[in-house]
């Protein structure tokens, strides 16, 4: 893997992880175009790139993250009493979004197999476009961490589970889910990204074992990995800023058009190859 390849893959990961498009599909496409062997070159690099985008979320929402950490320990110390403290409710809601993930663990292998279906990827990109378009028309809510309900958190958590399907954008799905549940635009974005932290961290910790057990990528210096991670971090920060700006304006139409076009092209190509 060259420096240029690492930069391109880091850029793809950082942008597509947070923009309401499918990151998994774009990474697979980028690997194929660059001639990167996922088994030989990308196992450890993939984990490192995800940690880079994880760090981007922490930096972008550091004020919220810091407050959530403080309130979590205060919540535990007070015997899990909320005491009308909004950030304690925020913590509880984030934890609730994790619960639906346990229901999909038995289907992990099936989901991984689905990654090879370009037809499914195309269909899910069209679903992402439909969700974004629908949420744009019904995004007049005002709920925040102070008054969002437990049901709201569970629904958005279920939406996050659905986004495990390749082609279905995690950020697009969870932001749309929050908007459709009456979240304010700002809170929908904050909640969607912050709720991803424990899930992405847990998933990457599990993948570390696979990465370490994989054959080492011969001849790839450490600095190449670090450059890719730095690019993923910086492009991730830029993408988060862009999503917050777009959500504030309530205009997801460019992404609706993009996901629709890419989805149709992917479906057509899958039929041609099939």
Structural features, described:
- With 274 residues, the protein is mainly alpha-helical.
- It has helices spanning 3-18, 23-34, 38-60, 62-77, 86-104, 108-114, 118-137, 150-162, 170-180, 185-194, 196-213, 222-249, 253-273.
- α1 packs parallel to α12 and α3 (38-60) crosses α12.
- The two termini are 31 Å apart.
Summed up:
The protein is 78% helix and 0% strand. With 274 residues, it is mainly α.
What best-fitting shape do the alpha-carbon axes yield? Answer: globular
Approximately how much beta-strand content do the residues carry?
under 5%
Structural class: mainly alpha
Mean of all residue-level pLDDT scores: 83
Write the SSE topology.
Elements: H1 3-18, H2 23-34, H3 38-60, H4 62-77, H5 86-104, H6 108-114, H7 118-137, H8 150-162, H9 170-180, H10 185-194, H11 196-213, H12 222-249, H13 253-273
Pick out its properties:
274 residues; globular; mainly alpha; 0% strand
